[in-house]
Amino acid sequence: MRRNLIPFFFIITAVFLSACDLVSELQPNPPTETPTSIAVTPGATAELVSTPDFDIPVSATAQPDRLIIWLPPQIVGPNDATTNVLLEQINTFNNANPELSIRVEQKTVSGQGGILSYLRTGSVVAPAILPDLVAIPVDMLSTAATDNLIYPLTEMVDTTGLEQLYPAASEMGQIESQLMGYPFALTDLPHLVYDNSVLTTTLPLTWQQLIVDENRNMVFAADGTDGATLALQFYLDAGGNLFNADGLPILELEPLIVTLEQLEMGRETGFLNPASSNLTAYNQTWQLFLSGESNIVRTSANYYLNQETTELPLGFTVTAGIDRPLTPLVNGWAWAVSTSDPAKRLLAVELIEELVAPENLAAWTFDSKMLPARRDAFAFWQQSEDPFVNFISPELERARPMPVSINSKTMTVLGDAVFQVVSGSKTAQEAATEAVNALQS
Predict the structure, then answer these.
(1) pTM for the whole thing?
(2) 429: exposed, middle or buried (C-beta count within 10 Å: 0-12, 13-18, 19+)?
(3) Domain of 156: which CATH number?
(4) Domain tally, the chain
């Protein structure tokens, strides 16, 4: 009997220590000037409240009339205008359900204090403090679903609304034929912006035609995520595969050589600004563009939307490809239901459908400078008669989800290869061979 009690003691001790670690992790920090929690009271105007996170005691039991929502700072918004739009919409829902108490708390996306980390640990030792509804990046949906941290929406949401999702958004929300998240915004859609006071004719749609005009000069973040993304777009356009028959990541040599040859030609013709090899972010490339050092810049829709461009003579176009424009690859955000309580799941879905209703989603995404995931929401944007809005509309139809995470080894290897070619330190053949071997090692 004594030998049987020893492992049991260690199990109890391990559970106790895990609970203590979580409780310690979830203990409220001293209040600061930064609002981290939002209390929504029926019949009142929602406001940011400077209260610590997790004001609900760990020992508390779940309240059937309380709905807890976790939002990353990127979604709550960095300014009062964005925050108020979202809170007003939550208030509208709350006023229609006066018996319901809603609390919105800000949580980071990743890391030890990130949403999935809290959900994974808290579901075991402190379920009462966990949310019923979360907003997460779409590339986290698969992990969250595999770990049973979120629940399917397939049988609960209005299918008519789902038909309004852009193709990329519709694909993002599906995990093994189940709707595990409701996408509401698309991000990182790449495109070109050019100075149409200098380049007055329509830019070619194929790379080899684009790069031969000596008057054209493009800057892009070759040493950053966008450099790897551009290579990925070219690679897919060249017919390259990202996974083998066993589902393991691969890069195929011939399509990758073709990919890197496009950038090599761009460097050799002088089309690519030499400074590109040292740039890592859109804000750096945008500054070179504004200074006139390049008359074409590769950027993303959400970065562009956050810039002041009213007085600038700008044109917009796709990224030219080998035989046709490259397919834009996008990321996004989705709502996911994280409560096991069936009644709360229904309430959470009702709130989701309120927030993604066309006028609501249009107002929120317009103020937060994110592209809506639904056509009927973007239709309200199109009433602005902004040339950029007219340009980006068909791009939203063409866009496809990023097939790999931006933090994956595949993207790291592609990024290294792009840097080597654009900087001139290696030929396309050399960089491609090294990249293929690096991914396999």
Answers:
(1) 0.85
(2) middle
(3) 3.40.190.10
(4) 2
